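User: Could you go from structure to sequence for me? I need the amino acid at each position, not a summary. Structure tokens:
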């Protein structure tokens, strides 16, 4: 986004270097052509190999998910992360919608049990729609595990299983709140919602899919949820809630951060929304300070945390740019992924 903005702004300058401008345009278009090939490959996987775009109750957001992964690691050499990270986030969104709008509480408890045990024996107890999504999650995760073993000599599947189990348990907690009519306290909501937003899972993927060498030390450190990851996920969650609360409440979702704070403190929505914005501002300061810490990992994973927060604020700045994307999101994605910059020969 910044590159395209700078190119457009540079072109308007009176004393610009035309050779440098042409080079910038060519570079941008070359990277964009790589993205287009990656999106095409993912579209075939999503619509042909899996066919999950036909599930009508779930959000079909392949391009948005791909762009989210571009925001975490944009360099051409990180194609594997963008491909597999997009697959993970597509499945996260579909599973989220199973818990939010489709499955009964009994079915959701079964689904969570399958995810925790990583065993699909008895899967026929689930409805076909849920069964299809569960199998897609199971098979895709194992494929990613196979790739990681082949390319990096590390069995990542036990860690992926753990991430799926944590995510599904967080979804189940929210489903139980909804079915029981329970209104969680603000801190109680946030503790669970930082996990259920799915950002921590994607950040975890950004480590093992971009690191030159996966180490147990780094994995153990990441598992303890360092400050930079927690801050990033908190910003993603609150940005999501600020942008989507009215839309998601209409779909039958749980109360979001604003509503939980309003109920607990007895304040108006305007006050609640301002409090969330204040938390986001303070969290950015905390994350910026934490970026200079001593960690058992390096780039690009280190920058993935602030990048994840940035991309969230991009999507939710004008409302629900992910759950119900409108003209603002499409207006950004078109020039970045589909429209090359004209180059004068």
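Assistant: Here is the amino acid at each position, in order:
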């Amino acid at each position: 986004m910044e590159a395209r903005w700078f190119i457009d702004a540079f072109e308007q300058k009176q004393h610009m270097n035309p050779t440098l401008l042409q080079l910038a345009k060519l570079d941008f278009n070359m990277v964009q052509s790589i993205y287009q090939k990656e999106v095409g490959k993912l579209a075939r996987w999503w619509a042909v190999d899996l066919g999950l775009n036909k599930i009508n109750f779930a959000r079909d957001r392949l391009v948005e998910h791909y762009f989210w992964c571009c925001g975490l690691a944009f360099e051409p050499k990180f194609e594997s992360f963008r491909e597999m990270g997009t697959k993970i986030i597509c499945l996260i969104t579909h599973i989220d919608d199973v818990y939010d709008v489709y499955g009964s509480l009994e079915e959701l408890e079964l689904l969570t049990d399958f995810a925790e045990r990583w065993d699909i024996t008895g899967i026929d107890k689930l409805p076909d729609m849920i069964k299809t999504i569960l199998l897609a999650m199971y098979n895709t995760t194992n494929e990613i595990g196979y790739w990681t073993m082949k390319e990096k000599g590390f069995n990542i599947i036990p860690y992926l299983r753990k991430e799926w189990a944590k995510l599904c348990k967080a979804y189940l907690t929210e489903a139980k709140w909804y079915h029981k009519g329970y209104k969680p306290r603000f801190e109680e909501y946030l503790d669970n919602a930082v996990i259920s937003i799915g950002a921590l899972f994607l950040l975890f993927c950004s480590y093992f899919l971009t690191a030159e060498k996966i180490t147990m030390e780094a994995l153990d450190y990441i598992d303890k949820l360092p400050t930079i990851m927690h801050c990033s996920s908190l910003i993603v969650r609150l940005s999501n809630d600020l942008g989507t609360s009215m839309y998601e409440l209409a779909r039958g979702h749980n109360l979001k951060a604003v509503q939980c704070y309003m109920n607990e403190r007895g304040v108006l929505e305007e006050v609640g929304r301002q409090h969330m914005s204040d938390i986001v501002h303070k969290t950015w300061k905390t994350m910026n300070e934490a970026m200079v810490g001593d960690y058992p990992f390096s780039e690009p994973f280190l920058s993935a945390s602030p990048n994840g927060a940035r991309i969230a604020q991009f999507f939710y700045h004008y409302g629900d740019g992910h759950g119900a994307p409108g003209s603002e999101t499409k207006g950004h994605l078109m020039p970045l992924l589909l429209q090359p910059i004209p180059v004068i020969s």
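One structural detail worth keeping in mind: The chain has a mean pLDDT of 92.
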